[in-house]
Design a protein that fits this description.
The complex is a heterodimer. Chain A is mainly α. Chain A has 15 helices and no strands. The chains are: A mainly alpha, B alpha+beta.
């Protein structure tokens, strides 16, 4: 097994080598992504100055790509916490090489998701209406609304995942400081908070890290449950169902794990992490994707079954239309990409083949984006009143903002991998070591 | 530290050697000052025999504060206008419990961070004299102090445990010989 060749020093060398000054290709990629971010920002500015009507949201579909992307990015964030917190509590050693990158993905995905409520507001300067501040009539936000649950949950999730990410990085920042010179040494001395690996520091750190993981676990489940209640608490066919919370949580982890593969595979190749992020690690992610894919498939089936079993004609019509109506193509893309294609991972040669892993992860990402499309658009476009039925297509402005948000996510991630350790050196050393006591 | 005290850092390749030195120090008159390691180690933790960290109490206090802060914020804001919304009571337990839950996690994490940085005494930007940069990489360090007259003994103690040795004299540019002072144990 390749991991036996690793030593403490080789782990440090491999990870710290990734922080060497980048070549021109790197800056070209950064520049291209930045252009994408600028394009998104220009589209948003155009919307602010022209009005929210430049987007395609209108009667009866008021929640279009802005909400689709919001839910998509919050979902992407979830697997980072699954890997860093939940698998940590379960002592799944295979998560160590990818935990840092997955946590980073969480932070950047929540940041990207957090932009969409601002974008969707239209009048973004009224954003303080979402905060618990009374207006001139001493009227406060309504905390009985699931939208306010969302504000509280997403802000908590961003704060907690950022602190978890930073705290987990402290020993590695100190390791970089101790090998750096000049300005970089000074910067890392500050951001490592003077960490020296003293036993007293480890004693409190491991305890604190354990509590972080224990707190992040219920948080991550609550956050996507709360996001699901944005829909489930509305009396809309296709939304008003009790399975939404577990269905959304499973879907979030499904999409997030796929994004982990999408990011890890190029990272592994570019930074020569083959000895650290082994095929076995990627294979474990693939196996978990099979599991989450089955849960998601079960949820799709349950929705249709309950609609039929309820004898509720509105509910039955909603699901008939989803499967065979105007958005049938989107529905079947969702089903095939999320539940059928991941089953290919049951075949060992496929789940241990890097190209297959990458390609299938892209299909799952696409499928999960369409899942949000089908849920959000598919219900309000075709609800109780036939005369109010209508179709929705995103406009170019929405596409611009969407592409901009994808570029923003990858832009932040690409900057991260060249400036901070993208693999946790400490946790990798623990993987080598039987005496490791992380979070014990 | 009084001026008649001296410190010596033993630098080890493995945690087992470091733990052996720590256990050995417990049985001598030398004072164990601190231990450095690149990973959190069960073996060293066993040798140190230190009590459990108190960080959890900070976390618990934060969590309890957070629950009441969240629930009471929602109840207070709702009570300010006393307007029935969606047929629910003014102080609706189920939705406000969700706000309370999120605040519980948020404040518990704040408490956790506060506990961690206060207990671990971070940030600390002044580096200790005998600190070695390899401690964050691949070496384990055990710092012990003794009366100046017993330095030689401590030096040989670490040597017998298989350590590379770092003394204040070396740091100040006089490497080589063990410090003068007293017999070996």
């Amino acid at each position: 097994m390749t991991q036996t060749a690793l030593t403490y020093q080789s782990i440090d060398d491999t990870v710290i080598d990734t922080l060497a000054p980048p070549d021109r290709n790197y800056w070209v990629v950064v520049a291209l992504l930045f252009c994408g971010v600028l394009m998104g920002a220009v589209c948003w500015l155009y919307q602010i100055f022209t009005g929210i009507g430049v987007g395609g949201q209108n009667n009866p579909v008021h929640w279009g790509t802005y909400l689709i992307n919001f839910v998509f990015w919050v979902g992407i964030a979830h697997s980072g916490t699954l890997i860093s917190a939940i698998l940590h509590l379960f002592r799944a050693g295979w998560r160590n090489p990818i935990a840092r990158a997955a946590e980073t993905m969480t932070v950047f995905a929540v940041c990207t998701a957090g932009l969409y409520p601002f974008i969707h507001l239209g009048r973004v300067w009224m954003v303080y209406y979402m905060l618990p501040i009374p207006n001139q009539r001493t009227l406060w936000p309504n905390f009985q609304s699931p939208l306010m649950f969302d504000v509280v949950a997403i802000s908590t999730y961003l704060t907690v995942s950022s602190l978890f990410w930073y705290t987990g990085m402290l020993p590695d920042l100190a390791a970089i400081r101790d090998r750096a010179t000049g300005l970089r040494r000074k910067v890392f001395a500050i951001i490592s908070l003077g960490w020296t690996g003293e036993y007293e520091q480890w004693r409190h750190y491991t305890r604190g890290y354990l509590f972080f993981a224990a707190l992040a676990t219920p948080l991550v489940i609550s956050v996507h449950s709360v996001v699901s209640w944005d829909f489930a608490l509305g009396v809309v066919p296709g939304w008003h169902t009790t399975i939404f919370a577990p269905y959304f949580v499973a879907g979030a982890i499904h999409s997030g794990l796929a994004m982990v593969l999408t990011l890890m595979i190029p990272l592994r190749k570019i930074f020569h992490y083959e000895k650290i992020i082994t095929v076995r690690v990627l294979e474990s992610v693939a196996k978990t994707i099979v599991f989450t894919g089955l849960i998601v498939g079960f949820a799709y089936g349950t929705e249709v079954f309950i609609a039929w079993y309820s004898h509720n004609i509105v509910e039955m019509e909603t699901f008939r239309w989803r499967m065979f109506g105007d958005y049938a193509v989107e529905y079947w893309i969702m089903v095939v990409c999320n539940t059928v294609i991941p089953l290919l991972f049951l075949i060992k040669p496929i789940r241990t083949h890097i190209k297959w892993l990458f390609v299938i992860s892209i299909f799952v990402n696409i499928g999960m984006w369409y899942e949000r499309f089908v849920i959000i658009i598919g219900s309000v476009a075709h609800d109780f009143l036939p005369y109010a039925w209508g179709l929705y297509r995103p406009t170019l402005v929405e596409f611009g903002i969407m592409i901009g948000s994808f570029c923003l996510f990858f832009f932040l991630f690409v900057l991260f991998v060249k400036h901070l350790p993208s693999v946790s050196m400490t946790e990798m050393k623990e993987t080598l070591h039987e005496g490791g006591a992380h979070a014990d | 530290m009084p001026t008649d005290r001296a410190s010596i850092m033993g630098i080890f390749d493995t945690e087992t050697q470091a733990a052996s030195a720590i256990r050995g120090l417990h049985n001598t008159a030398y004072t164990l000052e601190r231990v450095h390691s690149p990973i959190p180690s069960h073996v060293i933790a066993g040798a140190m025999e230190a009590p459990k960290s108190k960080v959890g109490w900070f976390t618990l206090a934060g969590g309890i504060t957070g629950f009441f802060a969240g629930f009471l914020l929602a109840a207070f804001t709702s009570a300010r206008w006393g307007m029935i919304v969606g047929g629910k009571p003014i102080v609706a337990l189920v939705p406000f419990f969700i706000v309370g839950f999120e605040f519980t996690i948020l404040f518990a994490v704040f408490g956790n961070v506060l506990g961690l940085i206060s207990q671990a005494r971070l940030p600390r930007f002044k580096q200790d004299e005998l600190y070695d940069p390899r401690f964050t990489g691949h070496k384990f360090g055990v710092l012990a102090s003794c009366n100046a007259s017993e330095c030689n003994g401590l030096y040989h103690f670490f040597e017998a445990k298989g350590a590379d040795i770092k003394t204040a004299e070396e740091v100040q540019g006089e490497p080589g010989q063990p410090p003068q002072g007293g017999p070996t144990p």
